[in-house]
Amino acid sequence: MLSIWYSITYLALDPARRFLLPPPHTVVQEGFLNGENRAELLAAFWLSARIAMAGLVVASLIGVGTAVLMSQAAWLRRSLYPYAVALQTIPILALVPLFGFWFGYGIACRVLVCVLISLFPMISNTLFGLQSLGSDAHDLFTLHRAGRLVRLWRLQLPGALPAIFVGLRTSAGLSVIGAIVGDFFFRQGDPGVGILIDLYRSRLQSEQMFAAIVLSSLLGIAVFWFFGFLMKLTIGAWYRPVEAGGRRSRPKARRHPNQLGSS
Fold this sequence. Notes:
Blueprint: H1 2-12, H2 24-33, H3 35-72, H4 74-89, H5 96-103, H6 107-131, H7 135-143, H8 148-182, H9 193-203, H10 206-235
Helix pairs in contact: 2-3, 2-10, 3-4, 3-6, 3-8, 3-9, 3-10, 4-6, 6-8, 8-10, 9-10
């Protein structure tokens, strides 16, 4: 990727047009090695990260709670799920100016945008996980006369953890997108990464703009990796994802220290 980047900069672009795609080393020098620019970028990065994580936490709590309610009663599922689907189809970013008009352009409104963007994957994945358990497990709990809460706490929620973590990874990326892209509409208050990207674009400061884009990409990759690591740490001992062809991956067999083997 760096070779392609350098090739486009120095071979495809004239020297007068290289501001359109500055070489990577100038992006690093101007965006990260320059103390003033680095401080500005890190301050905006920290603000956007806090907004994205706050939106993800709220969306996770609302999404899991709503999915649990829908899994317990069919009439609740029929009543609430169409609204969840409608929330996914509404262009949330087009409504950002309306949210700013209603609630102001502070941190709370930015978090609201992240919540609305990242809410549906949590609802749909959690509901899928709660309803995907086989009838044998439910029959076993019925045989022991387990109540609704015991069945939910001991059977459905543990069985839904893989789907919940998939929803968390998806919603985490969407929450970062909401924090960054939503900043383009919030030009009041402390600047986030999105505001800096738009500001650098208007000033033709392409090196700083690319540095801000790299930072926002790293934020999305970091949260995706974190929830993947948390998923492996939490349920990796008993959950094996399905590979291509419908087979489940198996852990590699460990050889006993005293076992003889060929060299």
